Amino acid sequence: MTSVTSLFAPVEADLCQMTENLKQLVGARHPILYAAAEHLFGAGGKRVRPAIVLLTSKATMPEAEILPTHRRLAEITEMIHTASLVHDDVVDEADLRRGVPTVHASFGNRIAVLAGDFLFAQSSWYLANLNNLEVVKLLSQVIMDLAEGEIQQGLNRFDTSLSIDEYLEKSYYKTASLIANSCKAAGVLSNVSDEMAMHLYSYGRHLGLAFQIVDDLFDFTSSMDALGKPAGSDMQSGILTAPVLYALEEKPYLEGLIEREFAQEGDLEQAIALVLDSKGLERSRQLAEQHAQLAVDHLADLPSSESRQALINLADYVLSRGH
After folding, report:
1. Which residue ranges make up each domain of the chain?
2. pTM here?
């Protein structure tokens, strides 16, 4: 399996510089914010989203050096993503992320909520300073989508009538919108055609959906060590993902367990066993593969380059995480 580090080789130096810049940008005002920034941007994150922005920037400007606005867009993308994680962890009451204590576990809920707000506000300020209205609109939409996704997820807890299409819509809001719109924004900064900008958006959309589906598979296939939380914990909190929705079509008994919110002893273990015994995981993998292939198809018109190849390989990497 290709490691994510080797995939990002064409932009590794840019990513290291970005991480240092983010610590300075976020932490300059206050020691607590600096500690939170150090904690967030040094927590072993794979920096997938800013790497995609930088790779897209390079792939759309193969003959020229990428622009300072491309680099700033990568930083803004990581700020927005990180802000959403800080807020998610407060909402989910999660004490660990990637095996590291979350901001609210380390600094308390008040600081975590304010740190998330500060990151969103700061990303908006830097976004406005790009002086590109189309890019401002694209990334502002992402911030709205992230909130919409969280609200949908909250309203649909333990709802066994949820459809796969509704699940994909929520997954778009929560994960794929940021990747799709930041890919398109990178193309806009490179002055690509409107048609190419839409291809870049579609690449990010389908890659993001594949990424989320594979993440949801992990809830059933990963150990506590790999995931940083117990198996089935999304289902336990009422978040019904592709493996569960597919399993519900085969295992009617599962519906009752979910609708009573695993109130009786052994309910959750039984529900996990039913999902594992169904075709839910296999069908979810196939769904992720379809979206990964669609993502790659949208890169066909980009000129051949190391960065374009890395974007193609990224689709394979996303799928390989699920095996």
Report:
1. 4-320
2. 0.92
**How crowded is the C-beta side of 4, counted as CA atoms within 13 Å?**
15
Q: Where does the pLDDT of residue 43 fall: very low under 50, low under 70, confident under 90, or very high at 90 and above? A: low
What CATH superfamily classification does 4-320 receive? Farnesyl Diphosphate Synthase (1.10.600.10)
Q: Which residue has the tokens 């990964």?
A: 292
* Unique residue bearing structure tokens 């979910």: 258
Which distant-in-sequence residues (6+ apart) come within 8 Å of 142 by Cβ? 80, 177, 178, 181, 182
Tell me, what's the pLDDT at 44?
57
How far, in Å, CA of 129 to CA of 136, rounded?
Answer: 9
Report which DSSP code applies to 97.
Answer: E
Residue 283 · residue 179 · CB < 8 Å: no
Beta carbons within 8 Å of 93's beta carbon, 6+ residues apart:
none
Decide: 125 and 150 in contact? Cβ < 8 Å.
no
pLDDT in tens, 280-313: 999 999 999 999 999 999 999 999 999 999 999 9
Of 289, 291, 295, 230, which is closest to residue 262 (Cα–Cα)? 230
DSSP of 100-139: EE-HHHHH-HHHHHHHHHHHHHHHHHHHHTT--HHHHHHH
Tokens 């890395």 appear where?
310
246-264, pLDDT tens digit by residue?
A: 999 999 999 999 999 999 9
pLDDT: is 162 or 99 the higher one?
A: 162
